[in-house]
Amino acid sequence: MSSQSTPLRILMIEDDRIEAELIRRQLAQSAYTAAEIEHHQRIARALERLREERYDIVLLDLNLPDGHGVSNLTRLVGACDTVPVIILTNVEDERTATDLVREGAQDYLIKRHITADLLARAIRYAMARKGAEVRLRESEKRFALAVAGARDGIWDWDLETDVVYYSPRWLDLLGLTPEQALPGPATWLDRIESDDQTGLRKALQAHLDGETPHFEYECRMSNAAGELIWVLARGLAVRDEHGRAVRIAGSLSDISDRKSTEAMLVHEALHDALTGLPNRNLFLDRLDLAMRQHRRDRKRKFAVLFLDLDRFKAINDSLGHAAGDELLIEFGRRLGMFLRPGDSVARLGGDEFAILLNDVTNLSEATRVAERVHELLSQKFVIADKEIFATASIGIALSDVKYERSGDLLRDADLAMYRTKRRRAGSYAVFDSFMHETALQRLELETDLRSAISRGELAVYYQPIVSLEHMRVVGFEALMRWFHPVRGLIGPDDFIPLAEESGTIGALTWWIMREACRQTRAWQQSDPAFGDLSISVNVSTRLFSDPDFAQRTVRVLEEVQLPASALHLEITENALLEHEAETLRELSALQKVGVKLHLDDFGTGYSSLSYLNLFAYDTLKIDRSFVSAARDGSRDRRIVDALVNLGRVLDMNVIAEGVETQEQAQNLRELKCCMAQGFWFSKPLPAESAEALLARERSLASSSIRNLTHN
Ligand code: C2E
Ligand code: MG
Ligand code: MG
Asked: Please, are residues 274 and 281 in contact by the beta-carbon 8 Å criterion?
């Protein structure tokens, strides 16, 4: 557009030739001497040309043969609105002039006043103004495009007039049509979720008061459909010379996606992925809350139920993990179904679940829930096309101000669960502080037990096994005793289960096996009369998972040079339940080398008879519960009778355990039971006493053991 480089191109529309010629001359005398002037007398032709060519300026006469007044200008601007227009007229009229400028004319010249200078100046200003206007319009257009294209909506709030401009995108975010959006702040503020209102107004005011460098707030807004969406509003105030905010403008972005991702992450952190139930963390949180409420108001009691599925491992192992998972999901679902709204159910991990019962008034409400869980489980689960019946052991702990941490309360519920599982799986128990004591004691005992062997605190006691026919000692059962430095003598029933759980049972068994075999070998060698003495050693189920069990046993025998046939291993019938294949293999290996196997406590386990089929035991030991109850004509006597016969039919020896009276011994003899053991003959004895007993028997070869021990 510069006048120096390229000549100015002027479109002149003027029907009067003389006027046109005058303009030409004035231009020739002006700064625009080199201007190229194209002259037309009619507006129609000029419009055509305007569409085809590019001009720097238009000089327009308002009175033309084919058009008149402001409408000429309107048509011109309509055809091309980037070229500046100067009006040439004979009429001096303010109103027309204003109208013309409003319609887009850059200037208005009265023909008779036109001079070369005036014209040149008018042209120069007109082009400058138009250029700026075009540039402004372009930048406005770009801005409008940017606003329309941006993901964010734009708002602009004039605080003086309280008029708010909302960009189309802003309206779009909320699904509003321009008609629905009144240009006031209510369009925005009224849609904000009521919980967020105060926070947003505070943040806004803080920025307007100059307390914050900018305004920023995340909140929920309801869109046109009435759904809540998460938005982030940001803004910056424009201030007057006194620092007072006069206007604030900013953006609005939809952050619903981010919020839902955040919510998902929070959910994942607090829920169990498999069942979707709250996890241990969330459960402890809720428990904390319940504990705080209880501390404030003791009347608000609650209970925690700790649930553990029984034999879940067996289900998992036999049906596969997918089936196990399905059972857990279904169990969680059933639990969730019958709880009241304020209660919580959580999966703590593995097959452990927990329930928080809020607002219980007494213990029986909690035990009733435990009973209902059992009922719930009595309905079969159909998993992987198989019907499964599951049971759970449940421990209950009640709110008590003594608890400081939620973890402690949960631990006590766990303890109660553990206790009931050991005693009677599939039932429930309520925690009492006595359990806590016991648990602590157990923990101490467990630690002590680890060093009991090395400290020489263990001893083997020997209880004679007597042939009823000859009334002689044919062997001993080795029974373990623990002389605890503080607690004194502890019986095996109190520490063997502990040893089994903590894993020390292996060390204990190998210790007693070696010691008892060594002692027995010594007795055998002390006198030919004792050459056939046998030793029975109790072996825990757990040891059969050791694939070297048979080999290690043989090594012990070789070490102490005891004939294999003198060693009798006592196994409780439940042993075979757990590790069938391994157990059978180890037992067969031992039987092959001559070791004898005794089935201990026969009659107390599950489905005893089927176990007799699984393995060819050498001897049956009838549990003392039958023996002690067996009186003349009683049902138990008939059971003992049947068991003795069973042994005979299956070609097994029978030992009756727990004979305490002469009458019982007599009964057993009548029933032709071949061997017996019990306090009537002798209590378990330390090695020296057992040895003394043997010596006396030897010296009184003809007298019965009963005479030996009781005289
Ligand atoms: P068990 O193998 O059935 O041993 C017999 C238990 O009955 C012994 O109890 C014995 O003292 C007791 N007993 C014997 N005669 C009578 C009687 O006439 N009346 C009464 N009321 N009881 C009698 P103890 O020594 O307390 O052992 C208990 C259980 O501990 C044993 O039962 C056995 O299962 C286990 N046990 C003992 N020593 C060991 C061991 O070294 N290893 C393993 N794994 N278990 C052992
Ligand atoms: Mg035994
Ligand atoms: Mg027994």
From this structure: no
